[in-house]
Design brief:
The protein is α/β, with parallel strands linked by helices. The chain has helices at about 5-15, 30-45, 70-80, 90-95, 110-115, 120-135, 145-160, 190-195, 195-210, 215-230; strands spanning about 1-5, 20-25, 45-50, 85, 140-145, 165-170, 235-240, 255-265, 265-275. The radius of gyration is 19 Å and the shape is globular. Bound molecules: adenosine monophosphate.
């Protein structure tokens, strides 16, 4: 596994990668969720490139950029068996003084995470476009865990004609259902137990759907009821939306996305299930 940080080094190393190249963009502090993306890339591509970059432009002014967990040495050890090239750009090289060019996707970035985190997706799409331009992968791997991010990237790739196949991989969970996340380390023991309420809420809604319910408001109410049963959970949004446009549904037809953002103490967790 080769490790590079500057853009010149990245370009040099990229030239020596032959065959299909798969890119897995991450912010580091890797867990089995990230590793599932890297393994999938390993299975499908001759070469695997992983980027590790805590992208400052996707964090809001009140968000956890400075305290976002980092452990590069451990990350390198975990990905070494599956990775050809790891790129850890420095923030100053991605956003040098005078930086003023942004990629913005419109309607699909507005609801859900976009409404709660203004500017977040502008940071995500800009950095992902820059990673795509630098690495020029044939395929890029994203997690269903960040469902709106995946929808936004799919839209950007279609709209800007990136010749890249976007592969969205299933959410990896702990044994009790909690979606793996680098932010789970912020939870204390009591909060960690309470955090399973997201999975239980989504599961209850899916059961309702599987028993034939198609009224989206009823499904949303079910999710809210289960969340309300956990005193440590403070829901920020609960959604039952169209899978591609993320517009809220009245009636569930075709593919739908159940999603939620919930504070457990100061930690903001997101999770989702796909229906249909
Ligand atoms: P992050 O480092 O949080 O930016 O995540 C990097 C990539 O890993 C994104 O495409 C995430 O959607 C994906 N990812 C994060 N958590 C999980 C998970 N539990 N299961 C599957 N993919 C995940």
């Amino acid at each position: 596994m080769r490790t590079v940080s500057t853009l010149d080094e990245l370009r040099d190393s990229r030239l020596s990668l032959d065959g299909t190249v798969g890119l897995v963009p991450t912010m580091g502090f890797l867990h089995d969720g990230h590793l599932s993306l890297i393994r999938r890339a390993r299975d499908e591509c001759k070469r695997v490139v992983v980027s590790i970059f805590v992208n400052p432009t996707q964090f809001g002014p009140k968000e956890d950029l400075a305290k976002y967990p980092r452990d590069l040495e451990r990350d390198f050890r975990l990905i070494e068996p599956f990775t050809d090239l790891v790129w850890t750009p420095a923030p100053e090289s991605m956003y040098p003084t005078g930086y003023q060019t942004w990629v913005e996707v419109e309607a699909v970035t507005r609801p859900l995470e976009g409404a709660m985190r203004p500017g977040h997706f502008k940071g995500v799409t800009t950095v992902v476009a820059k990673l795509f331009n630098a690495v020029q992968p044939h395929k890029a791997y994203f997690g269903q865990k960040d469902a709106q991010q995946a929808a936004v990237i799919r839209r950007m790739v279609r709209d800007l004609n990136f010749p890249i196949e976007i592969v969205v991989c299933p959410t990896q969970r702990e044994a009790d259902g909690l979606a793996m996340s680098s932010r789970n380390v912020y939870l204390d023991t009591e909060q960690r137990k309470a955090a399973t309420v997201l999975f239980h809420s989504l599961s209850a809604a899916r059961e309702l759907y599987e028993s034939g319910e198609r009224d989206a408001a009823t499904v949303r109410e079910k999710m809210k009821d289960v969340l309300a049963s956990e005193p440590l959970a403070e829901p920020q949004y609960v959604s039952c939306a169209d899978y591609d446009t993320l517009e809220e549904l009245n009636e569930i037809k075709g593919k739908a996305l159940l999603s939620m953002a919930v504070f457990i103490g100061k930690t903001r967790l997101i999770d989702n299930f796909v229906l249909g």
